[in-house]
Amino acid sequence: GNAKEVVLTGVQLGAWGRDLPTQDDLGSLIARVLSMQTIGRVRLSSLEPWDFEKDWLRLWQDERLCRHLHIPLQSGSDSILKAMKGPITTAAYADLVATIRSAVPGIAVTTDVIAGFPGETEADFIETKAFIQRMGFAGGHVFTYSPRPGTAAAYLTPIVESDVAKSRNAELRQIFKTLAASFRAQFIDSATSVLWEWTRQVSPHHWTLSGLTDHYIKVFAQSSVDRHNEITPLHLVGEHPRQ
Q1: pLDDT digits over 172-201, tens only?
Q2: Distance separating alpha carbons of residues 208 and 134, to the nearest angstrom
């Protein structure tokens, strides 16, 4: 049958193909999936910023490739990123996001951030908040750091007090909630299409629907018929109270 949406996902998805004897990479895999004309949409899951190849951006010329990228940041403080030993700086991250947005205007960029990583000072946290605001993310997930035995970070000090880490987590969540609302607001009174993933029959000719736009915005609607697993055009009229 025809697939309405194919989601490419995996641990270190951006590194796909590097262990193969061919010259294939994630970009060639996406192109191959898009060549299947029966597929309605292709969506990508989380991609590490250092794995993203800028020549992949040409693939978004096909409107079936969803305009949403989830690119983990982890921290907006360069000193914390260095402590995490990730091969990225805030400047390099910002440059990547700017390049992506230039090539795919209006794309939703979401991220992951860790609150309370060992050694995170109040100044580091302020830097992280400012960087997140400057990036204008479409949303994000926040995790509170917890040590995992056997990892290098488990031996780092000083430990951020639990109540401080939880407070920072809550503050970051609120920032992401506000940014997400701002991102959604730009689509009010505009046309889009939605893949209806959840439906519920309320009465013989009344269905409640919810699904996602290609920007990963959840949409709610009412219908006289069941639209489950259909992609339909519609006009967005306002913010829903369940967002």
Answers
A1: 999 999 999 999 999 999 999 999 999 999
A2: 37
Q: What is the 3-state secondary structure (H, E, C) of the chain?
A: CCCCCEEECCCCHHHCCCCCCCCCCHHHHHHHHHCCCCCCCEEECCCCHHHCCHHHHHHHHCCCECCEEECCCECCCHHHHHHHCCCCCHHHHHHHHHHHHHHCCCCEEEEEEEECCCCCCHHHHHHHHHHHHHHCCCEEEEEECCCCCCCHHHHCCCCCCHHHHHHHHHHHHHHHHHHHHHHHHCCCCCEEEEEEEEEEEEECCEEEEEEECCCCCEEEEEECCCCCCCEEEEECCCCCCCC
Could you identify the residue written with the tokens 């193909």?
17
- What confidence category does residue 34 fall into, taking pLDDT thresholds of 50, 70 and 90? very high
How many CB atoms are closer than 10 A to CB 153?
16
Report the alpha-carbon distance of residue 2 to residue 5 in Å, rounded.
Answer: 9
pTM: 0.93
Phi-psi region of 104 (alpha: psi -120 to 50; beta: other; left: phi over 0): beta
Closest CA to 63 of 28, 34, 103: 34
Dihedral pair phi/psi, residue 136, rounded to 5°: 60, 50
The pairing of beta strand 68-70 with beta strand 191-203: unpaired
Contact 212, 195 (CB under 8 A): yes
